[in-house]
Write a sequence for this structure.
């Protein structure tokens, strides 16, 4: 009997792990919010759509690379010293496939994947067909938006279409040609435009979502880039047409012009003039007829004043402490003409030359773009604006406004390195306890007018329409109409003159809005504008209170031919042999 | 639940087993050794009827009843040769057992059983605790260093209570870093921390299991090797009372040397000159000629102090003591081993009296430990044995409360900004204390007042273990079968109590020696802040283990067969967390023919509750051939007692490096910060099929014993191939658009050899032995998923544990610069800073003329030695004994950085004198110094192999001299049976090679060198038995 028991025991000993594991060794599974849960719930699905907007500003941000963004990698601004950051690598010619930032790849393809997940689930969403269509339009537009950003950086990119890769899948997608990439983005813009509404109620929480106008405006921008000399060309070093069409074709300008005209024809948008100074307020008001596509930051998160943090002079005591950066260069300052509309190089302009009066009577946009020595800005503890003091030399003693050069003066720690501070899009308020909420304008109507002007000029020459668009912009800017009512736009310009004029107009109107970096590339003028010393203004105050002025070199920028496009990250090439590197890397 | 039922059933079964008896003849006997001393505890069995057996009592006597006149008895006892005696026509026999000089019957402990040297086929290194009992160190593993081939260790700190060495078996082989071996004490799993707290006096033997044959039975836990400890148990005999008292001192092996105030100030001026490079107006020098003069002649001790804070705060020595008391004995029914121990080790802080004498608390470092153990064996019937073990440890570890740096006092003492020689005077003239008030100082109050008034931070660690077991012989089922059950409960409770002050608020004053004025640091803060008390529970965990096993061993003529089947279940609960469960079965089948041809098969099948795939199967096979047992060999080479070839191959696992939860499907995350309200995103992709790491272990070895056991040798070669290691999927294009989970993809290998060679002999009363062991292990990444930018950034093909950084190629020399002071075109320069002569120069690996992150590569060597060795010498003459251990390690690198190395981050040290200057350009070993140092030269910001040193060391690790007082002297005292006095030392002498960093300990962990210094320990002790 006992023998039997023991045998039984012995058997059970060895079969235990098989028979008796339900309770003891079961994997502890956690219940998760899974894909089905998201897309079978209209609120979750809506939130999933919302998150597709999360990264729309990433290439635009002034702190994209920590202490700087693309404006600090070009002749717009100098950043605080940040030797290993991307903008420094770019302007010093050191960007290479190994050290190039991969965030843009990560961000783009994350969003693309998410859009594709949405599209996969869209047919079963528990919402009205109209809502469903609008959501589809939004996410398809946003996917095109992210691709368009990639296109600026790299030329043709891998287009994954609607594919959602599984993790065990072999991924080795080649880059589409430049033309295919443009065509895909345009096709998606058109499709989205057909699904999207013209506008949203300005008081609704939906205000700021993608619209038909946004999709058409993105199309115009992409077509303008595509028509530009950089890509509308044939290159010997680009046999696979990854960064160029492989041919020159002037009708591409026509397509860009038509696309911009289509936005204008919506009759939905106009330049903002409702409150003065209009050029300044344009960036601060929440609802605005000039907004075509903007990031509407959530009102509940305390992160919308980073722009003040990064740009305000240290003495202006923002609510945040941080590294002050993005100091405008003399090159940008000099691009601003006079209030009468004439460039400072024009002997008739009345420009006083370097000295105490060099900032007098300038294009009004200058005063809302740059804080210079003497610019009046709000200061904590004072009612009424106080001068910004960027000088070095003998700093007067006195109240904190008079002695603010101790903090803000050139060469001081955490102070300007060019004699200027950026001001565009900043609030002029201090000591506020709530957030300064403002949209981040990504496409505004002024850009559409400039696209139209540039494309029409290239395709048809400087016709009347071109003049009228430019006058519209310059009158809003506050430039005097002049006796000829041309707002300083020279009459009867040639196509080349007009091209140069528009280039400068884009530079000043759209400064710090992520345009200049790409414009000098697509116009192929970077070798002239970028491969040289960058300057600042050193103002020295003497004991007697007089100032002396000296133009200083703050940085040597380097431009090489390969720098028209970014290098594909080396690790991506290693992982995916089908990918091809850009020329020159 | 079902398991519990079966266990209960089984226990019931054991107790209900009845004896059966037969009656024929009774034999009385007595057993002696060759010195005619009675041997208690000798096992006596009837040959051919092993169920009939007994053991000798405390007088060596036994009584056995045999069934026939032809019965033959077998007598066996550890350390002696087996002997058989015939009982024909005898009722009284006297047997003398001969010692096992050849060492072939020597038994080593392996997993769940023991093995003899002659028949073992696995790879085990073993040591009797007796040999390390008197090594004056608190932690068991520190005493093992240099004694066991295959045992790698590094002692990182000398702090009382925290000085236990890290240890590994045969190096490391997991790319994820957790290579800690499994620790088994009396068949129950222990943690790294627990084992370091054990009292060596409680231990009987220690083994390390190294190959698949010995570790496969631990299955998913065995891949990193296993440390097996057995504790002392009672032995048949009169009660033996042992008392050991030791007292001794700990001495700091080496304090860092710092430059004095004058030299430091001179270098600070030089650094400022260097920092002015390229500036149109040079930076003002911090110290004038007059300042320097005052530093030199010490005429202004308050304004220009010269303080060596290390010497002011620390003593060179501290005290330690150890007391052990144990009683051990028993008879055939009850055997006991009971022990209590106390260990105390003090710290090296000097005594400082607090401002208010009633605030006097012990803020010094110290360690106190109280251990107890009671191991009880009860044999109610001849076939049933119970075991009741209770043991526990209570520890207190103390730290000063006034330390401000999170990394401890020893980092502060290195830091220039806290403890530069002139950062503040030792005390102000009126007896108040200053603070690091210099513009570059960190503002901390004088460390003396912080230590004196800062209170303490104390941790209490309490550890209890209970094991209850029963062992029933089941010979009535089939001869040689037995069954065993063990149930254990172990619990750890750590508490902390801090009595401390906010030392930032201490009243401290800057004394201006020029106008004799005082200014307080914190305005209005003249009062000592109150003590703050903070008590909390730091750890509470417990482990329940249940084991049930069947054992079988039997001889069939020349055939010996043995088998084991074991069920093991463990449940670990940490704090309020969900228990972590582990379960498995283990089987072992072995066979040998005449001890000549050996075969063993082990199979572990176990798993834990983390994985979808619950169980893994881990088989191992091992074979041995005893050449010396072959007739032809015996004839030709009679000097060989043993010549055995053996090998093993098998699969083992490791679940150390697995995540704590494994998701089975992708989780979507909700979040804010998005326009239009909340957002939702897909989470990282998941890999529900994650499983444990696996290792294929191959071992080939040779065992030799010669000259009647005088000479022995074991040499082993191993190759371990570890695969299925969890690693990120680094080769998937970012196009996938989502984070990827880890996958079981990494592969690495670890190979090497280890061995030990021993010679022991005697010249009349003079006994001597010498033993040398060496271990060598090198590892290599075979595959891991990565997409390196450059081949030189691939980890594949390199050893584990390397650091990514820049290759240093000397200094920028004057000829690298043009007339305007900038680097000549063609000389690679970094982007991160402006380069000047004497800065560190790095290799431009990708040849683009710039030094960027693209030029980083894997540097130097890992921190863990590839080679360790030990030489053990033992001498004894009559009552005098001497033993010495020399131990060393080589084939590794140490990296020193930040406060440990960089001028003006660290206090200045001798190596900073070897700086680059235009005059010393050819011989400099340190870059030009700077006060606002160029990040190019900062060790932790620009990691380079300049800061790595190929290190090695040889230590006189321990030395013991003892004298056993002759018995005739003791006779006069009467109640003392034996007495021994001894002196022992640890870490006595070190020959180091740490390159330019002359001061550092060679076992230092790479980093800031902030550990409590390693100590040399000297003990004097008395051992008495009653």
């Amino acid at each position: 009997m006992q023998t039997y028991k023991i045998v039984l025991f012995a058997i059970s000993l060895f079969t235990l792990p098989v028979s008796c594991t339900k309770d003891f060794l079961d994997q502890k599974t956690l219940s998760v919010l899974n894909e089905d849960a998201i897309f079978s719930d209209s609120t979750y699905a809506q939130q999933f759509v919302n998150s597709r907007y999360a990264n729309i500003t990433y290439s635009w941000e002034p702190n994209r690379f920590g202490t700087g963004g693309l404006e600090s990698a070009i002749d717009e601004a100098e950043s605080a010293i940040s030797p290993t950051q991307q903008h420094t690598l770019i302007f010093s010619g050191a960007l290479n496939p190994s050290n190039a930032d991969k965030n843009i790849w990560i961000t783009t393809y994350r969003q693309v994947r998410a859009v594709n997940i949405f599209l996969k689930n869209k047919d079963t969403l528990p919402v009205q067909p109209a809502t469903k269509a609008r959501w589809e339009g939004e996410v398809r537009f946003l996917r095109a938006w992210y691709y368009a950003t990639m296109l600026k950086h790299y030329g043709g990119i891998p287009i994954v279409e609607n594919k959602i890769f599984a993790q065990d899948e072999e991924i080795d997608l080649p880059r589409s040609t430049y033309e295919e990439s443009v065509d895909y983005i345009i096709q998606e813009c058109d499709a989205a435009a057909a699904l999207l509404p013209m506008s949203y109620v300005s008081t609704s929480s939906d205000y700021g979502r993608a619209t038909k106008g946004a999709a058409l405006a993105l199309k115009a921008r992409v077509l303008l880039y595509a028509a530009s000399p950089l890509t509308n060309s044939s290159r010997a070093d680009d046999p696979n047409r990854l960064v160029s069409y492989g041919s020159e074709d002037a009708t591409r300008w026509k397509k860009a012009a038509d696309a911009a005209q289509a936005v204008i024809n919506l009759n939905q948008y106009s330049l903002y003039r409702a409150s003065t100074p209009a050029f300044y307020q344009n960036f601060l008001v929440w609802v605005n007829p000039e907004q075509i596509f903007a990031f509407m930051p959530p009102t509940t998160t305390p992160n919308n004043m980073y722009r003040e943090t990064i740009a305000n002079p240290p003495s202006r005591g923002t609510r945040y402490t941080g590294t002050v950066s993005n100091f405008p260069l003399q090159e940008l300052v000099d691009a601003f003409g006079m209030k009468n509309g004439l460039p400072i190089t024009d002997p008739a302009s009345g420009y006083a030359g370097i000295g105490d009066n060099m900032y007098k009577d300038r294009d009004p946009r200058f005063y809302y773009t740059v804080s210079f020595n003497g610019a009046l800005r709000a200061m904590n503890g004072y009612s009424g604006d106080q001068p910004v003091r960027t000088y070095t030399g003998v700093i007067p003693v006195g109240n904190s406004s008079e002695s603010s050069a101790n903090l803000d003066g050139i060469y001081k720690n955490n102070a300007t390195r060019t004699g200027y501070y950026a001001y565009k899009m900043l609030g002029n308020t201090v000591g506020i306890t709530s957030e300064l909420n403002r949209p981040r304008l990504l496409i505004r109507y002024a850009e559409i007018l400039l696209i139209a002007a540039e494309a029409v000029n290239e395709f048809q020459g400087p016709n009347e329409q071109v003049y009228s668009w430019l006058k519209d912009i310059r009158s809003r800017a506050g430039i005097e109409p002049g006796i000829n009512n041309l707002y300083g736009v020279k009459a009867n310009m040639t196509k080349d003159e007009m091209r140069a004029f528009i280039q400068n107009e884009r530079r000043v109107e759209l400064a710090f809005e992520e345009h200049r970096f790409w414009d000098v590339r697509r116009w192929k003028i970077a070798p002239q504008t970028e491969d040289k010393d960058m300057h600042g203004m050193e103002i020295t105050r003497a004991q007697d209170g007089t100032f002396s002025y000296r133009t200083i070199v703050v940085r040597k920028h380097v431009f090489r031919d390969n720098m028209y496009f970014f290098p594909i990250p080396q690790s991506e090439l290693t992982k995916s042999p089908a990918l091809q590197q850009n020329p020159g890397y | 639940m079902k398991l519990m039922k079966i266990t209960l059933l089984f226990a019931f079964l054991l107790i209900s087993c009845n004896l059966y008896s037969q009656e024929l003849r009774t034999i009385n006997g007595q057993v002696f050794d060759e010195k005619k001393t009675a041997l208690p505890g000798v096992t006596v069995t009837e040959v051919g009827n092993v169920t009939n057996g007994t053991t000798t009592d405390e007088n060596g006597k036994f009584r056995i009843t045999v069934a026939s006149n032809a019965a033959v008895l077998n007598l066996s006892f550890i350390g002696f040769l087996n002997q058989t005696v015939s009982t024909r026509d005898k009722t009284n026999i006297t047997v003398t057992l001969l010692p096992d000089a050849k060492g072939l019957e020597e038994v080593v402990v392996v997993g769940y059983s023991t093995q003899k040297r002659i028949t073992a086929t696995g790879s085990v290194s073993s040591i009797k605790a007796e040999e390390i009992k008197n090594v004056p160190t608190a932690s068991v593993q520190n005493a093992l260093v240099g004694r066991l081939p295959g045992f790698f260790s590094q002692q990182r700190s000398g702090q009382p209570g925290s000085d236990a060495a890290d240890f590994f078996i045969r190096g490391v082989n997991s790319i994820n870093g957790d290579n800690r071996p499994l620790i088994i004490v009396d068949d129950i799993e222990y943690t790294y921390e627990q084992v370091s707290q054990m009292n060596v006096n409680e231990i009987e033997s220690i083994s390390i299991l190294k190959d698949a044959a010995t570790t496969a039975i631990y299955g998913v836990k065995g891949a990193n090797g296993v440390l097996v400890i057995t504790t002392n148990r009672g032995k048949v005999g009169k009660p033996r009372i042992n008392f050991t008292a030791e007292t001794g001192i700990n001495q700091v092996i080496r304090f860092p040397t710092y430059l004095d105030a004058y030299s430091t100030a001179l270098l600070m001026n030089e650094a400022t000159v260097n920092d002015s490079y390229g500036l149109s107006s040079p930076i003002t020098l911090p110290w004038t000629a007059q300042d320097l003069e005052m530093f030199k002649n010490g005429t202004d001790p308050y304004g220009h102090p010269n303080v060596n804070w290390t010497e002011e705060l620390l003593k060179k020595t501290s005290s330690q003591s150890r007391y052990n008391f144990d009683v051990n004995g028993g008879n055939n029914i009850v055997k006991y081993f009971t022990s209590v121990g106390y260990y105390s080790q003090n710290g090296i802080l000097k005594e400082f009296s607090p401002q208010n004498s009633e605030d006097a608390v012990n803020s010094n470092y110290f360690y106190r430990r109280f251990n107890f153990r009671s191991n009880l064996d009860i044999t109610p019937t001849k076939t049933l044995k119970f075991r009741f073990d209770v043991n526990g440890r209570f520890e207190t570890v103390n730290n000063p409360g006034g330390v401000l740096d999170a990394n401890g006092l020893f980092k502060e003492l290195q830091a220039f900004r806290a403890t530069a020689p002139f950062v503040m005077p030792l005390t102000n003239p009126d007896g108040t204390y200053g603070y690091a008030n210099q513009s570059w100082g960190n503002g901390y109050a004088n460390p003396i007042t912080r230590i004196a008034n800062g209170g303490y931070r104390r941790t209490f660690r309490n550890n209890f273990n209970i094991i209850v077991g029963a062992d029933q012989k089941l010979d009535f089922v089939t001869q040689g079968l037995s069954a065993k059950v063990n149930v254990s409960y172990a619990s750890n409770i750590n508490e902390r109590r801090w009595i401390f002050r906010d030392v930032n608020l201490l009243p401290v004053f800057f004394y201006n020696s020029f106008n004799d004025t005082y200014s307080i640091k914190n305005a209005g803060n003249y009062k000592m802040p109150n003590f703050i008390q903070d008590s909390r529970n730091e750890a509470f965990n417990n482990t329940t283990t249940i084991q049930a096993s069947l054992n079988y061993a039997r001889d069939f003529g020349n055939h010996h067969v043995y088998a084991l089947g074991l069920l093991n279940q463990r449940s670990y609960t940490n704090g309020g967390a969900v228990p972590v469960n582990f379960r498995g079965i283990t089987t072992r089948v072995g066979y040998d023919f005449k001890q000549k041809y050996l075969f063993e098969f082990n199979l572990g099948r176990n798993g834990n509750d983390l994985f979808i795939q619950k169980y893994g199967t881990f088989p191992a096979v091992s074979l041995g051939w005893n050449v010396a047992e072959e007739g032809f060999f015996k004839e030709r080479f009679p000097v060989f007692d043993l010549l055995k070839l053996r090998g093993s191959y098998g699969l083992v696992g490791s679940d150390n490096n697995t995540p704590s939860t494994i998701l089975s499907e992708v989780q979507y995350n909700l979040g804010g910060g998005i326009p239009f309200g909340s957002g939702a995103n897909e989470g990282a992709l998941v890999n529900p099929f994650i499983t444990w790491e696996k290792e294929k272990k191959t071992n080939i070895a040779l065992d030799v014993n010669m000259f009647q056991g005088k000479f022995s040798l074991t040499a082993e070669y191993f190759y371990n191939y570890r695969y299925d290691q969890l690693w990120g999927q680094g080769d998937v294009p970012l196009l996938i658009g989502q984070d990827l989970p880890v996958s079981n993809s990494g592969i690495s290998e670890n190979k090497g050899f280890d061995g030990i060679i021993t010679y022991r002999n005697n010249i009349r009363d003079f006994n001597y032995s010498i033993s040398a062991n060496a271990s060598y292990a090198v590892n290599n990444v075979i595959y891991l998923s990565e997409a390196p930018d450059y081949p030189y950034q691939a980890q594949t093909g390199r050893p584990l544990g390397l650091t990514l950084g820049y290759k240093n190629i000397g200094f920028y020399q004057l000829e690298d610069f043009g007339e305007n002071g900038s680097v000549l075109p063609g000389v690679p320069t970094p982007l991160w800073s402006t380069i000047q002569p004497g800065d560190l120069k790095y290799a431009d690996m990708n040849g683009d003329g710039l030094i960027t992150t693209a030029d980083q590569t894997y540097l130097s060597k890992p921190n863990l030695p590839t080679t360790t060795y030990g030489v053990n010498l033992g001498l004894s003459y009559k009552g005098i004994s001497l033993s010495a251990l020399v131990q060393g390690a080589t084939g590794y690198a140490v990296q020193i950085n930040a406060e440990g190395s960089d001028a003006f981050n660290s206090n200045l040290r001798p190596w900073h004198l070897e700086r680059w200057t235009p005059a010393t350009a050819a011989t400099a070993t340190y870059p030009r110094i700077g006060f606002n140092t160029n990040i190019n030269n900062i060790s932790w910001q620009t990691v380079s192999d300049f800061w790595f040193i190929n290190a090695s060391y040889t230590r006189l690790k321990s030395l013991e001299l003892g004298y056993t007082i002759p018995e005739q002297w003791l006779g006069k005292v009467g109640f003392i049976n034996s007495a021994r006095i001894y002196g022992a030392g640890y870490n006595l002498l070190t020959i180091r090679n740490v390159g330019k960093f002359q001061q550092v300990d060679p076992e230092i962990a790479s980093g800031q060198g902030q550990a409590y210094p390693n100590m040399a320990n000297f003990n004097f002790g008395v051992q008495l038995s009653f």
Q: What stands out?
A: Chain A touches chain B through 80 residues (CB under 8 Å). Confidence is low (pLDDT under 50) at residues 11-21 of chain A. The CA atoms of residues 239 and 246 of chain A lie 8 Å apart.
